[in-house]
């Protein structure tokens, strides 16, 4: 009797224990399942570790070498072209005729003015005869009148002679286009029978004064690199495909304003667009082997003296005028650690085309910086790492 009661009691306890274990197992299963399900729904982020160091500034650009000595010769009077005497690539000497113009109208005007001068001289002779007659007759009134008329005629002749001299000089200067120096014809735009269409009729260049390379760079970069007029800079000149490029030392001859370019969200990572002022660098090079038209490039690189944390521009976000980044913060949880997006405001920063440097006290070594997220983030949002 007692034995049966004891066996029944053990069976009941075993059943209770089994049910308890099943309940606990189910509870743990559903807890982990719900956490797993929740983690799948969290924003997925891609991260990178910030690198300690300075920001690297790079000045790069390329272009075509053009002769430093070049003249764009325009049609001086807008007359029609009568004859083009040169072709592109032709060597010319100083004073050589390049283009002749139809100066017929100007020549006819000059002939008319010469005829007018002849008439004035004949009229002057008539007044001189009247002056002689007044002198002989002793007519004081007529004498004074003819004397004044004589002076007036002489002044008219003087004015007419200067006018003719000016027309002759203009005709000699504008009836033909002359080479201003020894060089090569780079361009011919003059067309026989037509007047100029806004372009220079001819372009003459000479390599005697060296060559110029023009490249456009961001204005702020000029200041960060300390680039200045007179500074020497290495220029790499490309050659034929079967020959290696060679390097020359050039000199920055001029730094000029060159408008601005749009600095877009793909570059700065802030989702905004900014106008960045541009500067045009004119770099002078000289070498006997240069002919003009070669492809040339420059590259200047310098690391900033200031140090901090360097991260990609795409990690930096903007809210109005404020900038910030999101870093990953790991927090302890009852069922494991969780990751949280923590907003870090940026008060000061330095930027180049691909990276941003922030102060060293904003991060710790090993901190993960969020580059992109599957959903918009707020400070304190739980996240899952990619």
List the helices and strands and how they pair.
Elements: H1 2-41, E1 44-49, E2 51-53, E3 56-64, E4 66-73, E5 81-84, E6 91-92, E7 97-101, H2 104-137, H3 140-174, E8 176-178, E9 183-188, E10 202-218, H4 219-225, E11 232-237, E12 246-263, H5 265-268, E13 274-285, E14 295-303, E15 308-312, E16 317-319, E17 322-331, E18 338-346, E19 350-351, E20 355-358, E21 368-373, E22 382-385
Parallel strand pairs: 1-22
Antiparallel strand pairs: 1-21, 2-15, 3-14, 4-10, 5-7, 6-9, 7-8, 9-10, 10-13, 11-12, 11-14, 12-13, 15-20, 16-17, 17-18, 18-22, 19-20
Helix pairs in contact: 2-3
Describe the structure.
- The protein has 386 residues and is α+β, with helices and mostly antiparallel strands.
- A hairpin with a 6-residue loop joins strand 17 and strand 18 (338-346).
- It folds into three domains: 41-55 and 308-385, conserved putative lor/sdh protein from methanococcus maripaludis s2 fold, CATH 2.40.420.20; 58-68 and 207-303, Elongation Factor Tu (Ef-tu), domain 3 (Beta Barrel), CATH 2.40.30; 72-184.
- The strands form four sheets. Strands 3, 4, 6, 9, 10, 11, 12, 13 and 14 form a nine-stranded antiparallel β-sheet that branches. The chain has a six-stranded mixed β-sheet with strand order 16-17-18-22-1-21. The chain has a four-stranded antiparallel β-sheet with strand order 2-15-20-19, with no helix packed on it.
- It contains five helices and 22 strands.
- 16% of the residues are buried.
- It comes from Paenibacillus macerans (Bacillus macerans).
- Keywords: Membrane, Transmembrane, Transmembrane helix.
- GO terms for molecular function: efflux transmembrane transporter activity.
